[in-house]
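Homework-ish question, so no full write-ups if that breaks the rules, but can someone show me the predicted structure for this set?
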Amino acid sequence: MDEFTPRIVAFCCSNCAAAAATIADGLQHVLPENVKIIQVPCTGRIEVLHLLKPFEEGADGVYVAGCQEDSCRYTSGISKAARRVAHVQKILEEIAIEPERIAVFNVSAGMGHAFTEIAREMTRKVREIGPIQA
Amino acid sequence: MIIAEAKPNSELLEMVSDCSKVLVVGCKGCVTVCNVGGAKEVGVLAATLKIARRRQGRTIAVDEVTLERQCDPEYVDEIKDRIGDYDAVISIACGVGPQFLSERYPSARVFPGVNTKFMGGAVAHGVWEERCAGCGQCVIHNFGGICPIARCSKSLQNGPCGGSDHGKCEISKDVDCIWDVIVRKMMSQGRLDELLKFRPPKSWTTSRDGGPRKMIREELRI
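A: Not a homework solution, just the prediction itself:
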């Protein structure tokens, strides 16, 4: 049987995660092809609907990669994003979908290795959970 | 404004379990301001329903519309040409909205998407508090501009009860004893003696005790 490859959408902060992605690229740490990146100026702008749309369009997992809590470029962007991710987790639970399909990660600009490792970790986790559709 | 909160999505899913085409109707009035029933929330609910159906291996068509207000017939009329296309309508306005839709469109199956909570205001982002009980005869000027009917757990109008504890109500440490607040405010204004004035018992006939309420203003009728 073919191994399930989850489709994952990652919302990435352009101040930290994007810089980490550049470093990852320099280190030749390749991002898994199943992870699609959406770069945003600040994760604080991501709303609940933005996080739900990928699931509606066929994604199996979503994550937000933003600044560290204590060094957010816009002070509280990542904290707001974390609260919205928590809200989406509640929505998913209410409709009998595993809340672990969405997560938030904190990265700094220098964490090139971590950036790709997060994508692999999320892929592993969602692969374990399985596809959304029954 | 009227404050409402979203019903659990599991409850809404059950309501429309046998439907394949649904219209979600928002309202640009109070529920938009309290972030529960405006255009954004219409989008969130529509997406949620579609994701839930995807989980079930079924599909559902969900259309979205947000009316100027659902408590005025002229705006409710705006969906008259399309409402017949749907198996169900979910209104995420306050409790008035789904009733106006039901009355205007007798053959439509209309479901309420939110629970209407109270009349109040935002004291901080994401935090709302009750301020008015809609008793129909405002008396807040007698109490330093603070309503003991809406804000005292027992709606007492003649002072605090024995449950007042260091400025907090016995129901919760998070709830102010509003009589403590009233007395302190009247003291600060040097008007404490006004609380001692004799006032006849409040008539509750203007409140719900008088049955469903209706108001007619002849000067506005056409």
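Now go work out the reasoning yourself. Hint: Chain B touches chain A at residues 8-10, 13, 40, 43-44, 47-48, 50-52, 54-57 (CB under 8 Å).
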